[in-house]
Design goal:
The chain is α+β, with helices and mostly antiparallel strands and 274 residues long. The chain is built from eight helices and eleven strands. The protein has two domains: 117 residues, GTP Cyclohydrolase I, domain 2 (2-Layer Sandwich); 154 residues, 2-Layer Sandwich (Alpha-Beta Plaits), CATH 3.30.70.560. Strands 5, 6, 7, 8 and 9 form a five-stranded antiparallel beta sheet that branches. The protein has a four-stranded antiparallel beta sheet with strand order 1-2-3-4. A two-stranded antiparallel sheet has the order 10-11. The two termini are 45 Å apart.
Length: 274
Amino acid sequence: MDQIIIENLEIFGYHGVFEEEAFLGQKFIVSARLYLETRQAGITDDLTKSLDYGEVCQFIKKLVENERYMLVERLAEEIARGLLLSFDKLQSVEITVKKPWAPVRVPLDTVAVQIQRGWHKAYLSIGSNMGDKEGYLDFAIDRLNALPDTKVTAVSDYIETEPYGGVEQDNFLNGALEIQTLKTPEELLDTTMGIEQEAHRERIVHWGPRTLDIDILFYDDAIIYTERLTVPHIEIPKRAFVLEPLMTIAPYYMHPVLHKSVMELLQELEMQQD
């Protein structure tokens, strides 16, 4: 990925834990590596195909001068988040915030915080088999799109499927989504569970009826196994109601563990069911 590099932007701000830092202020030095595609700008000599780094500098300057945070970590986070949300062409950023006048009472050149943040691609499965099924799936999409740090970039057709897991219940309506998000996997899980709760989802019977079910299928090429979250979703190869809609929006997406595409996984499952 191409980079635009801004180094050592000096700005006076009022960030810090101590009262005198908020009253007197101090110098902060901000550097940014901005990751984006610049080839079209290089070919056409057209600024609109790239990023106006003057605007980026003014954005950072305004944020550092006008806001006040206790921690340099928070300042770096807000700069990264603000840039990614404000400049569409940015894919990721690396932000370094230096605090050369840090009140630590020992000689030093500077204290610095450096972070990397960026957009992530994730795939979600959505399903409902209670009430207005289509309405609940549309509700999930609308709630995701309403988030400032998440956007739905592809939606499959909805398909009707028989219930999975042996519990007697109504047929499901299922779909798949592609999203871009700044959230971490755990933050995305909290968000999807919150949307389920807004739709009055009740977790009473395992694999039982539900107003809205949202599962994280893939998150970039990450392999995650925690008490709360497993990615890729462990049931993907077994579930036609997941693979069929996912096939329509991401047929060649490669499962990072099985090293097979969504298309291949669906074909293997169909052969097993014949």
